[in-house]
Design goal:
The chain contains two helices and 13 strands. The protein has helices at residues 27-33, 131-136; strands at 2-4, 11-14, 16-18, 21-24, 38-44, 48-52, 57-61, 67-71, 80-81, 87-91, 102-106, 122-123, 139-142. It binds zinc ion (2 copies).
Length: 143
């Protein structure tokens, strides 16, 4: 799958078999996305390739470790490598022509009062306790 930011400066390709997507409804993701949540998937680094624009990326990191990487021209969130792991976080709004559904909702207890989370799929009140299996659970090898 291919992705790019609004101004197209930052673009990338992912060659992973994706089983599902997740939405994080925490307060940080609400502000970062400007909406209810971030919709994302996590893929192995070996399946991720930058096509353009790495020099157009700015970074912000909170003391807690939450990181936000974004295009410094148009402001879109862009993929980033999860610290201490061999995985990339992919914001799905950047990806075109992709047909897998959201299967998991996390940090549901932090949701905005106007956010209606569908009953379908798996739900976590906070972060999943088993982060390793959460991180590796959305894909199944290379395409
Ligand atoms: Zn951009
Ligand atoms: Zn979040």
């Amino acid at each position: 799958m291919n992705g790019s930011c609004n101004c197209s400066a930052v673009s990338f390709v992912v060659n992973a078999k994706i089983n599902g997507l997740y939405q994080c409804h925490c307060k940080l993701c609400q502000k970062q996305s400007g909406s209810t949540s971030n919709t994302a998937v996590i893929v192995p680094s070996s399946t991720f390739t930058w096509v353009s624009g790495q020099d157009s990326i700015s970074r912000w990191e909170k003391d807690s470790g939450f990181t936000s990487h974004f295009c410094k021209i148009c402001g879109c969130p862009v993929p980033n490598k999860l610290k201490g792991t061999d995985f990339y976080w992919i914001p799905m709004g950047l990806v075109s022509n992709f047909e897998v559904s959201v299967t998991t909702h996390i940090c549901c207890h932090s949701k905005a009062s106007w956010d209606v989370i569908p009953k379908t799929g798996e739900h976590f009140e906070g972060m999943p306790e088993d982060l390793d299996s959460f991180i590796s659970g959305f894909q199944n090898g290379e395409v």
